[in-house]
Design goal:
The chain is α/β, with parallel strands linked by helices and 372 residues long. It has two domains: 12-51 and 173-368, no CATH class; 58-167. It is built from 13 helices and six strands. It has helices spanning 11-27, 30-50, 71-77, 90-99, 132-153, 174-204, 207-211, 218-248, 256-283, 289-304, 316-322, 326-338, 348-368, and strands spanning 58-62, 82-85, 104-112, 119-128, 159-161, 165-167. Strands 1, 2, 3, 4, 5 and 6 form a six-stranded mixed beta sheet that branches. Helix 1 crosses helix 8, helix 6 (174-204) packs antiparallel against helix 8 (218-248) and helix 6 (174-204) packs parallel to helix 9 (256-283). Residues 1-6 have low confidence and may be disordered.
Length: 372
């Protein structure tokens, strides 16, 4: 009698089955769709109506040839909302203006008056429409400083503020700040909660233990869960990008190329968050512990990563702390790609910091991952 030889077990077929099961589990839960797509759209509509999320500080560069000895300039130097920056490269200064990262430039010129002890001051302000929301408030500061000097200090030293010279470029709309932050906010919480609770439930219900009775490799279990979650989050990212672009005029400088670059950067962030979620599911003793761990990780990033407002409102030392947060790097990269039209090579710093986080997270995960 011929001996029966069992057929080889296909790991690829098993992986496909795990992926399909992951998708079914996600789309069978309407709450996942609400939190990943509907809520972010609502938040985008609300926060884009409030403004850019930018701070009340103004970055100003003083042009060469300006009179730094005038009373007017010394008064401006003391204004708490003005942040003075210096550029040795005029080309770099021009780039910052085009990106809207610089409120504008000032040229302060003095000329002798009939009184030998005083001089008239002429102030010229140059900017671009990319800094649109900050231009008018800054002009109010200039005029207020002029009036204060006229009334209280040196009435014989007139200050004239010339009409501002505003170069027409792509205007920096509120949605250009809000949407990248909401993308990060959406994938941060939905990925962490989705992965952590899914893996914890599979382990505690004994599903993973039953998988061990089959020839399925453990790595295929993780890949199956991860691909389902990552694909769903990428779908929500694409929906948010297209909704923002077509409905709210969100800037995508390079069209579909920008979308592809944003998606590729999102994949890196999702891999990081998937690892963090697996760590939390492994160290949690009960399911009630998982939200606490997630909030300890996610809430500081939500507040310190430029999600709802610019980190420029913080002191310098806190801004430096913000730079090590992965969500801050993700938000910065998306804004560079979308509004500034930059590519992967221009986001080297952001990618490097995210990569360090990925390596660190998966090193910790390799030590803590619990299957039973």
């Amino acid at each position: 009698m011929a001996s029966s030889v069992p057929p080889d077990y296909s790991q690829w077929t098993a992986l496909q089955a795990m992926i399909r099961a992951g998708f079914r589990a996600i789309f069978a839960n309407p709450i996942a769709i609400v939190f990943s797509i509907i809520f972010p759209i609502v938040f985008v509509l609300i926060f884009s109506a409030f403004g850019t999320g930018g701070s009340s500080s103004y970055k100003i560069a003083l042009l060469p040839g300006s009179d730094t000895s005038s009373v007017f300039y010394r008064s401006l130097r003391q204004h708490p909302q003005i942040q003075w920056v210096h550029f040795t490269d005029s080309a770099q200064l021009g780039k910052e203006l085009l990106k809207g990262k610089l409120t504008g430039t000032l040229l302060i010129e003095s000329a002798p008056t009939n009184t030998a002890a005083t001089a008239s001051v002429k102030v010229r302000f140059f900017s671009t429409t990319a800094s649109g929301p900050k231009i008018e408030p800054f002009l109010y500061i200039l005029d207020y400083t002029r009036l204060k000097q006229l009334a209280a200090t040196v009435p014989d030293s007139p200050v004239s503020i010339e009409p501002p010279v505003i170069r027409e470029v792509r205007k920096y709309l509120p949605i250009d700040f809000v949407l990248p932050g909401q993308l990060g906010f959406s994938i941060l919480f939905s990925t962490l909660f989705g992965i952590a609770f899914t893996f914890y439930g599979l382990r505690e219900q004994g599903v993973l233990k039953r998988f061990f009775a089959t020839p399925v490799h453990r790595i295929n279990i993780l890949i199956g869960i991860g691909i389902g979650r990552i694909s769903f989050q990428l779908l929500s990212v694409v929906v948010l990008l297209l909704f923002g672009h077509w409905v709210l005029d969100f800037t995508l400088q390079n069209g579909w190329l920008s979308v592809v670059q944003i998606i590729s950067f999102t994949v890196v962030m999702l891999l990081l968050l998937m690892g963090v979620g697996l760590i939390f599911s492994s160290i949690a003793k009960t399911d009630a512990t998982i939200p606490l761990l997630i909030n300890l990780f996610a809430l500081p990033q939500m507040l310190l990563s430029g999600t709802f407002f610019s980190v420029e409102v913080f002191p310098v030392w806190l801004q430096q702390v913000c730079e090590i947060l992965p969500l801050k790097q993700f938000n910065d990269a998306i804004r560079k790609i979308s509004f500034e039209g930059l590519g992967w090579l221009d986001c080297g710093k952001e990618f490097a910091i995210l990569s360090i986080w990925v390596l660190l997270v998966y090193f910790i995960l390799s030590r803590l991952l619990r299957w039973e």
